[in-house]
Amino acid sequence: MFSTDLAGEIPSSIFTLPVLRSLYLSRNQLSGPIREFDKAPSQLESVDLSKNKFSGPIPKTFFQLTSLKHVDFSSNNLRGLVDLTSFWRLSSLAYLNLSHNMLTGIQLTSDVLPSTSLVSLDLSFNRLGGQIPMPNSSVAFLDYSNNRFSSVLPNWAFYLSYTGYLSMSKNSINGHIPTSICNSMLDILDLSHNNFSGSVPSCLIENGQLRVLNLRENHFEGMLPSNITTRCALQTIDLHGNKIEGQLPRGLSHCTYLEVLDLGSNRIADTFPSWLRGFSNLHVLVLRSNQFYGAISDIVGDNRSEECFPSLQIIDLASNNFSGNLRSQWFERLEMMMSKFNSSGETLSDGNFSNPNEFYQDSIEITYKGSDMSFERILTTLTAIDFSNNRLEGTIPQSIGRLVSLRILNMSHNAFTGKIPAQLGSITDLESLDLSCNQLSGEIPQELTDLTFLASLNLSNNRLVGKIPQSHQFSTFDSNSFEGNAGLCGPPLSKLPCGASPYTPIVPHVDNSSLHVDVVLFLFIGLGFGVGFAAAIVLKWDRIGRRFIATARALLT
Fold it and tell me: What does the alpha-carbon distance between residue 319 and residue 386 come to, in Å, rounded to a whole number?
């Protein structure tokens, strides 16, 4: 059956059809428990109940279907324990997918799953905890990601002799990567977002077989291996958020298939790796939050015919010690950030499987609209330049305006001077612009109001002057976008127009025709008051004088 709008429970009688070989009920609204059935169809080989709303445990009679090769119960509401021991009794089972459910535990008689014909096991996106069970067989695909597993067998790599894809990402696993990993046939290794520690085995980078190495957000330390040969097949190296130190091994120049290089948030101390500029497949370069230093002016090279990061769509050098000026020629060579080279919106992904996008996908975390944001997929339309928190100086090159498909531009917390290039108004896809905390001067270019997709703007703490533009998106930004510029005026900083002072006294309108009458009247009133006051004083002193004279005469007599 193909996906329709079926609803309700699945009748148990459907499993009693004697010649039933395949049952596909995926992508419906079926719900309720999967009921026990009386007689197992001996020829049933494939069951796909994925993307429904089934709940409850898997019926025990289901494990009587000894001819089963393909089982997919993913994306349902299955809860409780999953009996992997019973699944392993299905000797023909090759594909088992229980992902995206609410399973909380595994029933096993051993930490090592018995040998079977299993090729693919997917337990991802559940609530499984404890120790990860390892299969003692030639399983090619293993996905334990997005669970609550806390440990794995000390020699777990011993069971990966024929495994090509292994993901344990987003668990709470402690431990090291055993050296036996060098004997595996891994093509994709994802141990990201765990508590692994120790050093990165050199064979993972030097052996030339692995295509994806994702150890992001762990506690790995030490220096990267340097004996990298021309056999390097790596397409993704993601070591973001560890304790890697030392320099970048120049042997990485042999990894010409690289698409993603993310070494952010480590302790690497080196100059900018301009020797990577000829990599025609490199889409993502993240070196943020390390100890890189020196100028990046040689990033272009002396030969204009030489390629310079032609596929680069995300470059993040934030929070390092880079210094010096930016060369205008560098931005003129970033072809991927120009619209005519970037309109597909495809996803960067790796895998030799039938649909690689369904399995491993590169992810990234960048500063977007003032906050750190994770992108679980990297589309070719996601373009960003982040040079913030360095010691870069000089003017911002006008040539950035040619990057018309750029979405994020962050040059904040540097020492840039001069005017904001009016050419930035040509980057019509720009969604986030941060030029704050520099020494930029002059007026805000009116051309920036053409950025109709701009959702985040920060020009604060510069030396900008003049009236803040009011049209289009600029009317939506609050004072935080402009504060710290003493010479800026107008809304949203102030409701008063430019040139008006909030301390100017308010002078009421006076009718000149009545001014003279009012003055004369005031004079007469004042004169009358003065005469009356003087008369009162004279009368008072006259009475006092008479009394004084009478008293004096009485004393003399």
Answer: 9
Tracing tokens 């008006």 back to the chain, one arrives at 500
pLDDT band at 494 (very low <50, low <70, confident <90, very high): confident
Q: Is residue 141 within 8 Å of residue 119, measured between CB atoms? A: yes
In sequence order, which residues have a C-beta less than 8 Å from that of residue 106 and are 6 or more positions away? 81, 82, 84, 128, 130, 133
**Whole-angstrom distance, CA of residue 314 vs CA of residue 407:** 10
Q: Give the CA-trace dihedral at 187, 192, 195, 199, to 10 degrees.
A: 50
Please give the single-letter amino acid code of residue 206.
E
**537 Cβ contact partners less than 8 Å away, ≥ 6 residues apart:** none
Give the DSSP H/E element, type plus range, for residue 143: strand 141-143
Report the Cα 159 to chain-centroid distance in Å. 35
Cβ atoms of 38 and 62 closer than 8 Å: no
pLDDT digits (tens, 9 = 90+) for 345-374: 566 654 444 443 457 889 989 888 778 888
Give pLDDT, residue 229: 86
Indicate whether 1 pLDDT > 80.
no
Three-class DSSP category at 212: strand
User: Tokens 């980078």 — which residue?
Assistant: 205
Give the span between the Cα atoms of 382 and 375, in whole angstroms. Answer: 9
SS3 488: strand
Q: What is the pLDDT of residue 366?
A: 87
Residue with tokens 């609530």: 127
Q: Are 195 and 218 in contact (CB under 8 A)?
A: yes
**Distance from C-alpha of 409 to C-alpha of 457, rounded to nearest angstrom:** 10
- CATH classification for the domain delimited by 7-489, as one of 3.80.10.10, 3.30.565.10, 3.40.50.2000, 3.20.20.30: 3.80.10.10
Point out the least confidently predicted range of 58-62, 291-295, 527-531: 527-531
Specify the pLDDT at position 499: 74
Q: What contacts 468, CB < 8 A, 6 or more positions away? A: 444, 474, 482, 488, 489, 490, 491, 492, 493
Q: How confident is the model at residue 3 (pLDDT cuts 50, 70, 90)?
A: low
pTM of the model: 0.85
CA-CA distance, 367 to 348, in Å (whole number)?
20
Q: Give the C-alpha separation, 56 to 31, whole Å.
A: 10
